[in-house]
Write a structure and sequence with these properties.
InterPro entries: CHCR_PEP5_VPS11, Clathrin_H-chain/VPS_repeat, PEP5_VPS11_N, VPS11, VPS11_C, WD40/YVTN_repeat-like_dom_sf, WD40_repeat_dom_sf, Znf_RING
Protein name: Vacuolar protein sorting-associated protein 11 homolog
Structural class: alpha+beta
Number of helices: 32
Largest sheet: 5 strands, mixed
Shape: elongated
Family: Belongs to the VPS11 family.
Number of strands: 32
Biased composition (Basic and acidic residues): 951-965
Coiled coil: 766-793
Radius of gyration: 68 Å
Distance between the termini: 183 Å
Helix content: 40-55%
Strand content: 15-25%
């Protein structure tokens, strides 16, 4: 684009400062030879060797730097260092001086911290230094360049390095930093541009960038990471990088000064049509004739428009400082160019409807994002008003995320703007700011435009990162394009919606099942439960087959924690309740995992097996089902099975094998007998009695009671029943015969064998009992005789030896009526008590233990009743209990035995001839002693517990004893 075609704006205000007269008065008639700015100063140097420092308040400080003239100067931007080159004497080598403006002497003059005499006699033309003070270059008129390395303020004795001589005067130089340790030096002459790599230690290689040069002050380095070295020619502005030539900007006019300020390029040039000799330009090497008019132009190169232009006279230099531009004339007057604020600029652009320019300017100056959005909105409104709807949509798209979408959507709701609305909605989804309503609207727009290909491209092929409400999109696509709805549901894993479309819209039930098989177990379970009824109604076989595979994972998985998320057969039983055969087939698939079946599942399976068995007409198939049910019941014995529920089912369907098995398994044999008898299955009842009669003998009695009252009972079975009753003594003969006498079915011939056997057995029992009675009578007579002898006759002690030590007895001795005799010291050593015979004590204790044991046994009432029920002769059992005193109080028996003194009354014989007359019964056998102790105490000398009155007539020793008849009495 030509310079003349650029848009022009007035974004600067020029101020002619009234204090500039102070500067003119300070400079006086001297000629300004060099200018510079930085670190809060404007620096001017004149041909009298003076340096003038101008502050922001236009206060001027002047000090003498040289005796003759100041040729060049540069003020470091971020440092207080000022570098000057001048002459103390004409026609001598120039002198380099470094000043520290913050350090002053007593006269407030800056201190010179370095002075170096330049090695060449040629006059220098350009001077540049880096802000870090490590590099400095001086260009001379003959094309030589002196490069100084090191700290400018300290390396006073460092010698410069002379670079390659270019043969032409140096018109401009600038340092550019590529990285921390890599620096390049751009150099321009009248006819060339080159760069030197000044970081090299041995040499500084040169690269020629262009064969086009520039005049003095017509080169500048643009700041920033993508900076360029610019030179100004009459036809254009040329840019260069460290490697090659850069862009070129067509800007006509003869350039005098080139300067950079912020993001703007300042060009000072001669007005077109003016003769060259009519313009006065001040340089460091010559003083040209004054010119009549010079224009100053500020360019925004990035946005390609002119932001300010004006015409002035005698411009010497343009100095950027304090955020403004200062224009210095040859006469010393100073004018200030102040940039307008951004809002003022934008206001001007808005009035001219230059929104595109406003946007570019706002972006360049990092304008606030919200304010930038407002510019886009205004720009879009402007284009919408002009009828450029596509352009308006482009601007509205840039407001997404900040501007409410409804503001834009309502502008394009008309059907003629549907294309623009579709574009905006598409962008709204792509940026993730759409909601359900926007999705619905977008898909409706695609449908109205019949752009199914674009719809498919939007949702399937392209724009993978587009965020929209998938459920709404699928719902809209179902109405116009079910294929796209399926693709969208599959892409975004909306499995339930995918299946719903296949079932409701396309009725592809098999395809839906195939799709479900590809999903994970959790997803398959969730979906099949949701649509199981539909699958069963349309594809029952395929559905059952799929359910078998699905539920198998629950049994085969090893992770118990995951089993809660898997499908279980119980979840799908309700679907197959109307088809028992299908349900049985489904559950039989899992018969290898019966140990994992629940009780309800097992009962359901058995119930429907019974239904199938009931409806089956083929006997072979019925037998198979019977075996299957019994095998199921047998295989689940280790698992808790609700047998009562199964029993109810079996009785409802009259399934005899299951009823028999459950009764047998639960040992309910009496119920089993009743069940057989209710079916008139007498053979089965007898077989049951044969198998379990030894466990529960009452089964024969139960069959016997039924046989008596049942007219259909086979008589030939009665004999076996009666034999078992007789053998096991289940009923008394009297009761049996009485019951048979009441029966109308049986006659004497049916029970002849039983009666014959019964009477024969009774006869043997009577004979045996008679023998026992005779024996017991004889034993009783013997015991009575012994007792009478002990009561009424004296006992003669004839023992000669001690029963303990077997030595000859000596007085004192102890004699017991059991015919045991002891030395008194032996008795005291071996006896546990003073009243018991040591030899008889163990036997007596054994007898007492038997009595106590019998007393304890009588407390077990249940045991007594059990014996009574099993006893063949109940009367004999009760008599035995009475005879063993098991119904008496044990303490009473023990007291009676203690009072009797028949067992443990010792007789102590001392040398004194005293003969006590106390008797004890003879030593008895354990059996006889037990019976003897159990008899009632008949000792007339003992008092019983009832305090009976003693009959003195029965005492044979009641008369006083005649001592004269005592052969052992003392002779007196």
């Amino acid at each position: 684009m030509s310079f003349l075609e650029w848009r022009k704006f007035n974004f600067f205000d020029i101020i002619h400062n009234a204090d500039s007269n102070k500067i003119s008065q300070t400079i006086g008639s001297s000629k300004i030879t060099s200018t510079s700015s930085g670190h809060g100063h404007l620096v001017t140097c004149d041909d009298d060797g003076l340096v003038h420092l101008i502050t922001r308040t236009f206060q001027v400080t002047t000090f003498r730097a040289y005796q003759s003239t100041v040729l060049l100067s540069t003020q470091l931007q971020y440092s207080s260092i000022l570098v000057t080159i001048g002459e103390d004497e004409p026609n001598t080598n120039t002198i380099l001086k470094v000043w520290d403006l913050e350090r002053r002497d007593r006269q407030s003059t800056p201190i010179c911290i370095r002075t170096t005499k330049l090695p060449k006699s040629e006059k220098p033309t350009t001077l540049c230094a880096t802000d870090n003070r490590l590099l400095m270059a001086i260009g001379f008129k003959d094309g030589c360049i002196a490069l100084f390395k090191g700290d400018l303020s300290r390396d006073r004795n460092s010698k410069p390095k002379m670079l390659k001589e270019l043969g032409q005067g140096i018109t401009g130089m600038a340092f550019k930093c590529i990285s921390k340790d890599q620096w390049y030096l751009f150099v321009s002459t009248v006819s060339s541009v080159q760069q030197f790599n000044v970081t090299s230690k041995d040499s500084c290689p040169m690269t020629v960038l262009d064969a086009v040069g520039c005049d003095f002050k017509c080169s500048v380095l643009v700041n920033g990471p993508d900076s360029h070295f610019m030179i100004a020619k009459e036809d254009a502005i040329y840019c260069y990088t460290v490697d090659s030539r850069g862009p070129c900007y067509v800007v006509g006019g003869q350039k005098i000064i080139l300067q950079w300020f912020r993001n703007y390029l300042i060009i000072v040039s001669k007005e077109r049509g003016k003769p060259l000799n009519a313009i006065t330009v001040s340089t460091t090497t010559k003083h040209s004739d004054e010119i009549e008019s010079i224009s100053i132009t500020v360019l925004d190169i990035q946005n390609k428009f002119i932001i300010y232009t004006t015409t002035m006279q005698d411009i010497l230099s343009v100095l950027p400082e304090w955020g403004s531009l200062y224009i210095l004339t040859t006469k010393g007057s100073l004018s200030q160019l102040i940039e307008k604020d951004l809002q003022s600029k934008l206001t001007v652009l808005f009035k001219k409807n230059l929104y595109d320019v406003a946007v570019r300017m706002a972006k360049c100056q990092q304008y606030d994002s919200q304010a930038l959005i407002d510019i886009f909105r205004q720009y879009g409104d402007h284009l919408y008003t002009k009828g450029d709807h596509s352009g308006a949509v482009e601007q509205y798209i840039k407001t997404i995320g900040k501007l409410e979408p409804s503001y834009v959507i309502k502008k394009f709701l008309d059907s003629q703007y549907i294309d623009s609305l579709t574009t905006y909605l598409h962008a709204l989804h792509k940026l993730g700011n759409a909601n359900k309503d926007h999705t619905t609207l977008l898909f409706n727009c695609y449908s109205k435009l019949n752009s199914l290909d674009k719809l498919q491209e939007f949702i399937v092929i392209k724009d993978e990162n587009i965020d929209f409400d998938v459920d709404v999109a699928i719902k809209v696509c179902r109405q116009s394009s079910p294929e796209n709805a399926l693709a969208l549901a599959e892409k975004h894993n909306r499995h339930s919606l995918y299946i719903k479309i296949l079932l409701e819209d396309r009725h592809e039930y098999t395809s839906a099942l195939e799709y479900i098989e590809k999903l994970s177990v959790d997803q398959s379970v969730q979906i099949i439960k949701q649509y199981s009824n539909v699958f069963i109604e349309n594809v029952p076989k395929e559905t059952v087959s799929f359910l078998k595979k699905l539920c198998s994972t629950w049994y085969t998985t090893a992770n118990v924690d995951l089993s809660g998320n898997l499908a279980q057969p119980e979840d799908f039983i309700y679907l197959l309740l109307d088809d028992s055969e299908c349900l049985v087939d489904f559950l039989e698939h899992f018969d290898n995992f019966l140990d994992k079946w629940s009780t309800s599942l097992l009962n359901t399976y058995i119930e429907h097996c019974l239904i199938v068995w009931k409806n089956e007409n083929n006997q072979e198939n019925r037998n198979k089902i019977e075996k299957k049910i019994i095998n199921i019941l047998q295989s689940t014995d280790i698992k808790m099975c609700d047998h009562y529920q199964v029993l109810i089912l079996a009785m409802s369907f009259e399934f005899k094998p299951a009823i028999v098995y459950i009764f047998e398994h639960n040992k309910q044999y009496s119920k089993l007998i009743r069940y057989y008898l209710s079916l008139n299955d007498y053979i089965g009842a007898i077989e049951c009695c044969r198998r379990y009669g030894h466990v529960e003998p009452k089964l024969w009695v139960l069959v016997f009671n039924t046989a008596i009252v049942d007219d259909m009972f086979p008589p030939f079975m009665l004999e076996e029943i009666l034999n078992e009753i007789e053998k096991k003594s289940l009923l008394s003969a009297h009761f049996t015969i009485t019951s048979l006498a009441k029966s109308k079915t049986f006659n004497i011939g049916h029970v002849r064998a039983y009666l014959t056997s019964l009477f024969g057995a009774e006869k043997k029992i009577l004979e045996k009992d008679k023998e026992m009675v005779d024996k017991y009578q004889n034993d009783t007579e013997n015991l009575k005789h012994t007792i009478e002898k002990l009561k009424n006759c004296a006992v003669v002690f004839q023992g000669l030896r001690c029963s303990a030590c077997n030595n000859q007895l000596e007085l004192p001795s102890v004699h017991f009526m059991c015919q045991h005799s002891y030395h008194q010291h032996c008795f005291q050593a071996f006896s546990e008590s003073d009243d018991d015979c040591p030899a008889c004590t163990p036997n007596n204790k054994q007898i007492m233990d038997i009595i106590r044991t019998q007393g304890q046994i009588k407390d077990y009432n249940s045991e007594f009743h059990n014996q009574l029920e099993r006893a063949t002769d109940c009367f004999s059992l009760i008599s035995e209990y009475f005879g063993r005193c098991l119904f008496d109080d044990l303490s009473t028996v023990e007291n009676q035995l203690a009072k009797s003194k028949l067992i443990s009354s010792p007789i102590v014989l001392t040398p004194k001839p005293v003969v006590p007359v106390v008797q004890t019964p003879p030593r008895l056998s354990p059996i006889l002693s037990v019976h003897a102790i159990q008899q009632q105490n008949t000792n007339p000398f003992d008092e019983d517990e009832d305090n009976m009155e003693y009959d003195d007539n029965k005492n044979p020793f009641k008369d006083e004893y005649d001592e004269s008849k005592n052969p052992f009495a003392d002779d007196t």
